[in-house]
UniProtKB/TrEMBL annotation:
GO molecular function: oxidoreductase activity
A GO-annotated cellular component: cytoplasm
UniProt cross-references to PANTHER family, sorted A to Z: CHAIN OXIDOREDUCTASE (CSGA), PUTATIVE (AFU_ORTHOLOGUE AFUA_4G00910)-RELATED, SHORT-CHAIN DEHYDROGENASE/REDUCTASE
Name of the molecule in the record: NAD-P-binding protein
Annotated InterPro entries: Fungal_SecMetab_SDRs, NAD(P)-bd_dom_sf, SDR_fam
Domain of life, per lineage: Eukaryota
Family according to the record: Belongs to the short-chain dehydrogenases/reductases (SDR) family.
Length: 213
């Protein structure tokens, strides 16, 4: 009997999350729980579900993917950003992954792979030095990086990592982005499937390379 794995993906109605669903559905070994802010409007996701032959099961979650994120401040800077924009960005980019993981940690711990993936960005890497712009977004991703570090330290029996999918051609990435979403997501999934327990607490890019903090 083929081993099956359960993936839980937030922000699955568009962009990176939707492409993850599409690629994961190509393997019969994957069972996907796709979360969207407004399922009624997620027409493309609904179409995929109708043709997926999905089954309702009570299982552990092998891979919990915290993908939902926002970039509300655009190219703001530390001295120009609005506090309410920073607060809303934190609520989604940091509070969201924290609460989702807390809610589903019991199901993750019951699974075989026991993996939590927080989708971050190299913009949140201090060592990568992306300059002054996109401050509210970068600050939130730096905070997400620390959250991931803390989760990995608290639960050493889990594999908890960060992934940067690259600058992708999505609504968030914008028209100037350099990579098709399929390329970034393909690299992310390849890296996730090759993870080992000792990788926990690591920040990877979509090419499977380590990203400096």
């Amino acid at each position: 009997m083929t081993q099956e794995y359960v993936w839980f993906i937030t922000g699955a109605n568009r962009g990176i999350g939707l492409e993850m669903v599409k690629q994961l559905l190509q393997s019969p070994a994957n069972i996907i729980v796709a979360a969207a802010r407004d399922p009624a409007k997620a027409t493309e996701l609904q179409g995929l579900a109708e043709n997926a032959g999905g089954k309702l099961r009570l299982l552990g979650i092998d891979y919990l993917i915290n993908n939902a994120g926002v970039m509300l401040g655009g190219e703001d800077t530390a001295f120009s950003m609005y506090v309410d924009v920073l607060t809303k960005t934190f609520a989604t980019n940091v509070g969201g992954p924290a609460l989702v993981t807390q809610a589903f940690i019991g199901l993750v711990e019951k699974s075989e792979k026991k993996t939590v993936v927080n989708i971050s960005s190299t913009v949140g890497s201090i060592a990568s030095d992306f300059g002054a712009k996109a401050a509210s977004y970068a600050i939130s991703k730096a905070a997400l990086n620390m959250l991931t570090y803390k989760e990995a330290k608290e639960k050493p029996d889990l594999t908890v990592i960060l992934m940067c999918p690259g600058w992708l051609q999505t609504d968030l990435g914008g028209p100037d982005a350099i990579l098709p979403v399929s390329v970034g997501v393909g690299g992310v999934l390849k890296t996730i499937l090759a993870l080992k327990p000792e990788d926990s607490g690591t920040f990877f890019n979509f090419q499977g390379q380590g990203v400096p903090w």
